[in-house]
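Q: Hi! New to this. If I give you a protein sequence and the SMILES for magnesium ion, can you show me the bound structure?
A: Yes, paste them in.
Q: Okay, here:
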Amino acid sequence: MRKRKKKIAGLNGGYVMPTSFASSPKSDSGLLKVQISAPLNGSGSANAFVYSPTEPGGLGHSRSWFTYEELVEATNGFSVQNLLGEGGFGCVYKGYLPDGREIAVKQLKIGGGQGEREFKAEVEIISRIHHRHLVSLVGYCISQNQRLLVYDYVSNNNLCFHLHGEGRSVLDWATRVKVAAGAARGLAYLHEDCHPRIIHRDIKSSNILLDNNLEARVSDFGLAKLALDTNSHVTTRVMGTFGYMAPEYASSGKLTEKSDVFSFGVVLLELITGRKPVDASQPLGDESLVEWVSYESDLLTVLLLLNQP
Ligand SMILES: Nc1ncnc2c1ncn2[C@@H]1O[C@H](COP(=O)(O)OP(=O)(O)OP(=O)(O)O)[C@@H](O)[C@H]1O
Ligand SMILES: [Mg+2]
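A: Thanks. Here is the predicted structure of the protein with magnesium ion bound:
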């Protein structure tokens, strides 16, 4: 087990499922149904197949769903020893498929009987996206009110842990650059090579997983939207994480891929400065990384201007 219990920093682990914009425009409605132009294999595609329990280790696409019992078995009954952590959508457990393949099972909190068709449709789409810098969705499970997602297991925790985890040695500069470039490639694939484009909606350091070679794999793309769509009684909400959210998205709900780019910019600042996006231990006014950086850069500009001959 890597990490038993993840942060619950601030509200819901920093996750924002906040303001119901009752009267806000459903501005991203045109983007709600993502479709992928087939075939979707990213350059250097890693796991370009959907696991089929009927064909052990199979390369077929015959079955991307799991029974609940299969996942109970895989995760040792969702035991606490297998718990990898908990995010805004629920707990994540490490598991093993009968052929030995390692998986991460996310038990979604969304539940409810609604949105089963939407859930299936979107999960099928996401499970067709494969790229070496994205975490592949292996399959899903729908069992009564339960919704579970099965991902490829990525072995070396996430960027947030490597940057801010207690007692961690400092990440060297070359690794930071490699992680930034890898995550950028994964994100660019979602924005530019999927049609229509996929907006991640929750880019942050904990959603950038690292493999044993410290290569970045962006996780949880499409998840925020999936949670929205399957909770059909809540249609217009802003979803994201404090400290990373683009201001125009937070204030108006207007969503474009630029919102992801803003959040990715925050990850870059995090990589460059080693500071958390929101850090309550900083002096008053300096808690937000974005505000701190803009203040520092304003100050630098003033100093440079004052130094002009
Ligand atoms: N595919 C995976 N392989 C290995 N570990 C994973 C995988 N997916 C998630 N984890 C780990 O499980 C823990 C919980 O992840 P989770 O995605 O639920 O939280 P989060 O990323 O902080 O928040 P969010 O719900 O907004 O994505 C994290 O420590 C994460 O690194
Ligand atoms: Mg996550």
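A: The domain at 159-306 is CATH 1.10.510.10 (Transferase(Phosphotransferase); domain 1). Let me know if you'd like me to explain how to read the tokens.
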